[in-house]
Design brief:
Layout: E1 8-15, E2 22-31, E3 37-44, E4 53-56, E5 68-79, E6 83-89, H1 92-106
Antiparallel strand pairs: 1-2, 1-6, 2-3, 3-5, 4-5
């Protein structure tokens, strides 16, 4: 079984809420504990709209096709078998921006 690292950008078949269909889209790996699942955040090319969205400034070197946003409040735990392939990794600068927002989110605990 493949393991993923925080900051990996993967192409994954996201299931719809109904569970009947999927949509292939990029995602940011946040956590892989070594089991069959991975925790990811959605990545979208839609403009930033929330305090928990992080612009991926170095999107081309991360393997993305378009300028993109990591939506850190849109998390999912998905089976690794849904991952089609790894696209790339966040740059150190983008990783730091993601870490800053994640600390803000989880500081509320």
């Amino acid at each position: 079984m493949t393991n993923y690292n925080p900051g990996d950008i993967v192409l994954i078949d996201f299931p719809f809420v109904s569970g009947n269909e999927t949509r292939r889209r990029p995602a940011l790996v946040l956590l892989d504990t070594g089991d069959a699942d991975v925790v990811v955040a959605r990545v979208t090319s839609q403009p930033r709209s929330d305090a928990f969205d992080v612009e991926i400034t170095e999107w081309q070197t991360s393997g993305l096709l378009l300028p993109s946003i990591a939506r850190l409040h849109k998390l999912a735990t998905l089976e690794k078998r849904l991952i089609v392939r790894t696209l790339g990794r966040l740059s150190p600068t983008d990783s730091q921006a993601v870490a800053k927002i994640l600390r803000q989110i989880f500081a509320r605990w």
